[in-house]
Design a protein that fits this description.
By secondary structure, the protein is of the alpha+beta class. The protein has nine helices and nine strands. The protein has helices spanning 2-11, 13-29, 36-43, 47-60, 76-103, 145-151, 156-166, 179-192, 232-253; strands at 33-34, 63-65, 71-73, 106-113, 116-123, 138-139, 195-198, 205-211, 219-226.
């Protein structure tokens, strides 16, 4: 009897919830705007089912219909995203604090949000001279270690499209400003499991970062500090500790 009731429930409201969230994720992956036929093709669901789910999501404020008759992710999702980002920071802080204790330099967590990197959490170094990144700060990914670590997980065609949109502006003499040179760095990061920023965002600052595996969003964790303290020995010690912290955070998020 228990199995029969479970099966029945899954074909009703539970299945509808799974399908509705699946549609939202499909739209997010596609850039946030899709038509009904596109959703039907991408999801494999019948058009009447898509229409029913979409109308419900519109009524709830999670989708909105544009004059073009396509549907876009609705503003009500912003509140959920903001709360989720806050919780990501809460879950990350203990892992970042351990990195600071073990390595002595500032530890950060960032997320890829569209074409930008947004910093969600930081635990600062206790050195009087330290790197401070304001939570909520947005930067372009081509000049940051966290950006490289996250982009190394994406297909090269998607990376090149992003670079074309952002234009790869120069921030310092070390900033990489050509797609070929940048993608070569991403291949290196993919092979080694970590990425670095060699004063490419700010002069005199060095960072090392790893991606958070199997996370619900593109996330990365990093250690940053003055180049004089961020020696090769420190980077060599940091990489396995960052990798361990990223895996532990990933486990917490499941």
């Amino acid at each position: 009897m228990a199995e029969a009731n479970g099966g029945k429930g899954r074909t009703g409201s539970v299945q509808s919830i799974e399908r509705a969230f699946g549609l939202l994720e499909t739209m997010a992956d596609a850039g946030g705007m899709m038509g009904l036929s596109q959703l039907a093709t991408a999801s494999g669901l019948p058009l009447p089912t898509i229409h029913r789910l979409v109308r419900t999501l519109v009524d709830l404020g999670y989708l909105r219909q544009e004059p073009s008759r396509q549907y876009v992710l609705g503003p009500k999702l912003i509140r959920l995203g903001e709360s989720s980002s806050h919780m990501l920071s809460v879950w990350a802080r203990p892992h970042l604090a351990r990195l600071v204790d073990e390595l002595g330099e500032s530890a950060n967590m960032a997320m890829l949000d569209g074409d930008q990197v947004v910093y969600l959490a930081q635990v600062p170094s206790r050195h009087s001279m330290r790197m401070f990144t304001e939570v909520g700060r947005r930067v372009l990914p081509h000049c940051t270690a966290v950006g490289k670590a996250m982009l190394a997980q994406l297909p090269e065609s998607e990376v090149r499209d992003l670079l074309h949109r952002t234009g790869m502006p120069r921030h310092t003499d070390n900033t990489i400003t050509t797609p070929d040179a940048f993608t070569a760095q991403l291949h290196k990061a993919e092979e080694s499991g970590y990425a670095t920023d060699e004063g490419e965002q700010e002069v005199g600052v060095r960072c090392v970062a790893v991606a958070v595996p199997d996370a619900p969003s593109r996330l990365a964790m990093s250690i940053s500090g003055p180049a004089g303290r961020m020696t090769e020995d420190l980077v060599e010690r940091a990489v396995p500790l960052l990798t361990q912290a990223a895996k532990a955070l990933s486990d917490d998020l499941r």
